[in-house]
Each structure stands twice: as structure tokens, then as C-alpha cells.
Amino acid sequence: MNNLDQIFVYAKYWLLSQLPGGVQSLVSIVLDIIAIIAVFGTCFALTTILERKGLGRIQNRYGPNRVGPCGLLQPMADAIKMLTKEDIVPFAADKVVHYLAPLVLTVPIWLAFSVIPFGREMSAIDLDAGVLFFFAVGGASELAVFMAGWSSRNKYSLVGAMRAIAQMISYEVPLVLATIPVIMLSGSLNLNKIVEAQSGYAFGVAQWNVFTPWGFAGFFLFLIAATAESNRSPFDLPEGESEIIAGFLTEYSGFKYALFFLGEYLGLFAVTALSVTLFLGGWHAPLQVLEFLPSWFCFFVKFAAIIAVFIWVRGTVPRLRFDQLLNFSWRFLVPLTLVNLLVAVVWHFTSLGAGLDQSLRWLISAAMIVPAYVYFGRALSPNRPTRIYQYAE
Fold first, then answer.
1. d(Cα 322, Cα 122) in Å, to the nearest integer?
2. Which secondary structure element, helix H or strand E, spans residue 195, and what is its range?
3. What's this model's pTM, rounded to 2 decimal places?
């Protein structure tokens, strides 16, 4: 283990050693909070500018290019604008609930980062029920969205909130179901132990969960559900501006609007970090020859790669209709995650100890999940009668 890998851990311990014992635990908590806010606050600023530039390139137009060199100071300009804009609150709004809604959204998401292991010995809290804690605090987002829509006393806000809650609940089900095979086969809800279960190498290649048939399918099912849960395109219907103006955010402006914007990106970062932990080996390197790399560096390279995929999807995939969105969850993702759960069970009980070759186990798993994928995919678009066109004579 090189010193660069544990540089942040050593720096924290050195700083704590300079303090009296009575305040070390409190300062340790404060340092963890500062580190999480600094890292993901920076990720938020960088992602917004890179996303806008990436979307500009995808759509053959200019991205931000006026503020700072190459437009790199645009996030700072956006922050100043949001801080200085007038905060307008509807006269009939429930002002207390209207004020609390963005706080209820953002604060629990910061808590979700506390159980993610960002590197070797680099998790703020090592909980035995870390996965359960992650989804428990994430459930506050539905409450925050309802608070925002209801307190605004605006029919567009209320309709947008109802649509958002329906979407979030619909996609939270497959999101949780996609994690169950990981929990079953690792035998723990502790995210650090889930990472340890993926620590081996076979022929120099990492034994991540994504390199198994159930992990490969579960990873993509998880990412699709996470895209909808994070209100990302093509699932960004709660803010369907062509139909309901701006959804539950219609009556928000200034810094409170910015908090919702921040919460959306933090939610995206949280589920991305969880996907890296569950399926991509956490902070482990993909190849044994790369084990010399710092563990936190490996984690954030995977993290950045998935964020780049989210940006690419946003710029290339059109928005769904709301009925298509709900059908896609309940008629495709949910049954497919249940089939994948069965695949994980079969994979476990047909281990090499049972006398089956690895390639045969892959064939059995593929024979279970591929027909299910085809069947449920076709069920989304049932056969319709052929249209008959009649022309006037």
C-alpha cells in the first residue's frame, strides 16, 4: 500500500493527533463533512460546465464560452446570479413549507454520501446496514417534492409534484430490486464488505459483479432506474416545460431554485457512487497490474465515466411520454429485475463446486434473461391493427 493511496487518511489522523482527546471525535466528524461537501460541491460545478459544453458539441452549437477562459468560470457566474436574484414567494403559499422543501431535498442526500467507501479506509461511516441507510435517507426526496408542489398553491406545481412522485416511486422499486442480488451474493448490507467481496483477480482481471451475467444485467437495470430517479433525460417529465411550465419548481426562484438544482445533481452523484460500489468493484482497479494506483483515483475514474454516459444519454435520447415512462418501469424494468434475481440464485447454486463449467453457467444464465428481455420488451409495444387509409375519389 503506497503512501499516496492513504494520503488523505494520514492527513486527517495527523491533524487529529494535534488536538486534545476530548474534541477529536467531533473534529473528525466535521472534517468528514467538509471533505464530502468540498469534493461533491466541486463535482457539481465541474459537471454543470462540462455537461453544457458536451451538449453544445453534441447539438452542434456553442456551449458557455464568455465567462473566464473557455467559459470555465460559468458555474461561478451562475452561483452569483442565483444568490442575487429576488426570492419571489406566492402570496397564498404556505411560506414555511415552501422554504423548507429545498432543504428537505438536499440535506438527506448529503447524508447518503457518508456510507459510500470512496477509497481504502475512506468511508465516513462504516454501517453494517449501509445500503439500507442509503435508500432510507434517499426516500426523503419524495417528501420534499410533495412539499414544494403543495405549498406553492399552484395547480401546475401540484400536478408536477404528483407526476414527479409517481415517477420516483415507480423507479425506486426496480432500483432497489437491482441491488438485491448484490446483497445476496456478498452476504452483507455493508458497502465496505460488498467492495471486499469484489477484491479478487482471475488471470489478472478483476472479479467485479458486473463481470457476471446477473451483475451485467443488474448494472444496466440499475443505471436506467437511477436515470429516472435522478430526473434525467429521457425521464425528465416532472419538469416538462412544454406541458406544465416547470413542474413542482414553477413558483421557485433565486437560491431556493438553485438548491433544487443542486439536489438533482447530488442525487445523480449519489446513485452513481453507489453503482460503482455495487457493480464496479468500488475502489479496486480493473486489472491487477494497476493495483499501484491510489484507490480513490480508481473510484473517481469510474465515477466520472458513468457521469459522462449520463451526459451522452441526455444529449441523444428524446423524452418519453408519461404513460410510456410508467409502462417502462412496471412492465419492463420491475419484471426483468425479478428475473435477474432468479438468475443470481441459479448462478450461486451452480457454482464450480457443483461441477458445472463457467461457460455452461453463463449459457444457463443467458438462456434465462435473454428471452425475458425479448418478451417484456415486445410487451411494451403490443401489436396494433394495421391502419387502412381511404382516399376520396
1. 40
2. helix 191-196
3. 0.91
